[in-house]
Amino acid sequence: MQHGWEGVVLKALRGKDFVLTVRGSEQVGEQYQRVRVSDGGLLAACPPHPAMWVRLWFEHEGRAHQRAYTLVDPDPAAGTFDLEFALHDGPAAHWSVAVQPGGTIEATVQGTREAEPPPATRVVHLVGDPASLPAVNSLLDAHPTTPARVWLEAGHPADRDLPVRARAGHEVVWVDRDGAAPGQALQAAVTGAWAGDAAADPAQDWFWVACEAAAARALTKHLRRDLGVAKDRVSSLAYWRAT
Ligand SMILES: Cc1cc2nc3c(=O)[nH]c(=O)nc-3n(C[C@H](O)[C@H](O)[C@H](O)COP(=O)(O)OP(=O)(O)OC[C@H]3O[C@@H](n4cnc5c(N)ncnc54)[C@H](O)[C@@H]3O)c2cc1C
């Protein structure tokens, strides 16, 4: 598949290309699909790190569309990992439910890097939704003994049943979207919690935000400008854009 100008830019940035082969696929929730893949040599060439993501190329209406997805349980020895898809009306989501074992998908590794809490972080605050749940789980796996507060927005009631890898000392709060614009209820709940009893400590905590673009931007601004959190204690990325 031709990757267009995005492919040219990624090549210039030394993106590495691979072909993943689907081993199987299963529905994890009403609106959530897991696809198991063989890595085509990806993990040997690009050692995994927490919340590592790749750019997958989906064909739609004769064009290549690049979408970011997080590696779930990468196993370099076996050369396998899983991909988890929050379902909605989009080319990547459609592919995840239609693909059969033996199907392939092109992947480019470029731009992913480890986000790590500074040493001696008191509490890790993770803000996300089903799209960033794979990354949230990967961070909880990577920091199993660091106290964590996790806020997740449920776009559908069934999202609350999705598997969160919380351990002792990890508190999980699901916030229902409840008809509001994506990210709005989450933003209000998190901002309130950071100001209230479950207060955030700007000097000792680490804040990881990955949700709908407008909410991610607003929460980052709140952390930096209103709460005075230093740059190295905030990691934030728009995971998707509501249209
Ligand atoms: C670093 C990174 C890692 C990511 N990892 C994952 C992952 O592991 N799993 C995952 O599911 N997503 C992940 N995402 C988000 C995913 O890339 C986007 O949701 C992407 O837009 C989906 O593409 P699509 O072709 O299905 O839909 P698009 O063509 O992008 O959008 C179609 C329609 O669906 C809406 N839409 C798009 N995404 C969502 C969503 N998540 N929820 C509700 N509506 C949506 C859009 O607003 C639009 O109206 C990640 C994003 C980033 C930046």
From TrEMBL:
PROSITE patterns: FAD_FR
Gene3D superfamilies per record: Nucleotide-binding domain of ferredoxin-NADP reductase (FNR) module, Translation factors
Pfam families: FAD_binding_9, SIP
UniProt-recorded Gene Ontology molecular function terms: oxidoreductase activity
Organism: Modestobacter caceresii
PANTHER family: FERRIC REDUCTASE, NADPH-DEPENDENT, NADPH-DEPENDENT FERRIC-CHELATE REDUCTASE
Signal peptide positions (record): none
Protein name according to UniProt: FAD-binding protein
InterPro entries: FAD-bd_FR_type, FNR_nucleotide-bd, Riboflavin_synthase-like_b-brl, SIP_FAD-bd, SIP_fam, SIP_rossman_dom
Sequence ranges assigned to domain FAD-binding FR-type in this UniProt record: 15-119
